[in-house]
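User: Let's play a game. I give you a shape written as tokens, and you guess the letters that built it. Ready? Here's round one.
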């Protein structure tokens, strides 16, 4: 795995993103920043792994219960799926979700989670997936809190369970998902060794950086949303995460 890169300066970026039409929104738009909170959780997990080095649980169900106890104060619950899907076989994490009517984050673990305390290579893959996905869900948690301040719970639940939200293409186009995926795309590219200025260059033209491959950006957003307001908003969020005021809208521990 290449070294994780971040916080390198970006030069000559004033004209990096050109407004494609007169109806486009401004470049700067507030985003929720989960980085500090993610680092707390990431460090917590590294400490747990270190403290349990070599330990093997007889049943995976017992392991996820133990992990849930360790992250109880953060309102994060681990669940054992009993099978693998997505990248679960490789990383031990099938996926994560945020509750539609609570602050809880659920982490669905695959059978390979049994290697968490005994396989160093697996630990690296697990922590990489954990960092990318937990940041995504922490952004949703902050969005949930913000929305809850303005709408009653019935309206929130109705929106999150609506057919429009659940359709795959509609899901990726939703504004709240765009913000979360913008952050996740950055983290995926950093784990591939990209500096921040490389990321901006890649977003502008992926052909300039064949060494980087971000599937959600290339296979979803470029494929289905190229030259649309949807990808313009995604790019604005990416730019804001990299170049905006890092002290605004920092995600706190809830």
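Assistant: Ready! My guess for every position:
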């Amino acid at each position: 795995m290449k070294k994780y890169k971040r916080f390198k300066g970006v030069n000559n970026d004033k004209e990096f993103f050109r407004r494609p039409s007169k109806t486009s929104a401004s470049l700067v738009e507030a985003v929720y920043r989960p980085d500090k909170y993610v680092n707390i959780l990431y460090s917590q997990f590294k400490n747990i792994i270190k403290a349990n080095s070599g330990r093997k649980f007889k049943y995976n169900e017992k392991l996820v219960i133990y992990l849930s106890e360790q992250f109880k104060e953060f309102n994060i619950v681990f669940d054992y799926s009993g099978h693998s899907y997505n990248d679960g076989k490789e990383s031990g994490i099938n996926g994560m979700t945020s509750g539609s009517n609570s602050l809880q984050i659920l982490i669905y673990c695959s059978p390979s989670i049994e290697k968490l305390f005994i396989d160093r290579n697996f630990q690296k893959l697990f922590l990489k997936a954990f960092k990318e996905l937990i940041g995504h869900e922490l952004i949703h948690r902050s969005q949930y809190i913000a929305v809850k301040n303005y709408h009653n719970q019935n309206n929130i639940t109705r929106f999150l369970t609506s057919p429009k939200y659940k359709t795959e293409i509609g899901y990726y186009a939703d504004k709240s998902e765009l913000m979360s995926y913008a952050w996740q795309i950055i983290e995926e590219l950093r784990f591939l060794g990209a500096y921040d200025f490389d990321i901006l260059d890649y977003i502008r033209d992926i052909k300039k950086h064949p060494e980087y491959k971000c599937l959600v950006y290339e296979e979803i957003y470029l494929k289905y949303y190229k030259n649309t307001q949807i990808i313009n908003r995604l790019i604005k969020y990416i730019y804001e995460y990299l170049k905006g005021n890092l002290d605004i809208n920092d995600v706190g521990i809830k």
